[in-house]
Amino acid sequence: MLAGDERAGRVVREAVTTVEQLQAQQQWEQALALCKNVIHNHGDVLPDSNIHLVKMLDSATDACVNLARWDGALHYSTRTLWAYGMYYPQFHPARAVQLVRVGKLQLYLEKFREALVTLKQAYDVMKVTHGAAHPLTCDVERMLGECRAELDRA
Which residues, other chains included, contact 88 with Cβ-Cβ below 8 Å and sequence gap of 6+? Predict the structure, then answer.
């Protein structure tokens, strides 16, 4: 959806193209700097449901992951979850993968309670979209086990 200020939406849409070019060239620092600038300058007039802003948040997540900036990756990817839930039906592979992405970051950053909730959601979706025996579903099940084990130790 193109919610929010129309002019800001155009600016973000054009910036997405530039960010995609920087990502293709693996210029992650420049891509992240542009993402941060655009999100900072237009995030207050565009809701997180604006499709161009969602793309920018995904790009910022990708850049952070490639630069091993896990807190930033979690910040940006978490902001996309509401929009993914809005744009995709409950049982959609893209929604499942985004939930896994967030849950994996939460697990890595030792946010075990949050990871458990997110990964449970991902697992429930993936059982339907991928099947219980799919390797990705099994990976989520393994991560859920890690979360439970860590929480039991605490």
Answer: 94, 95
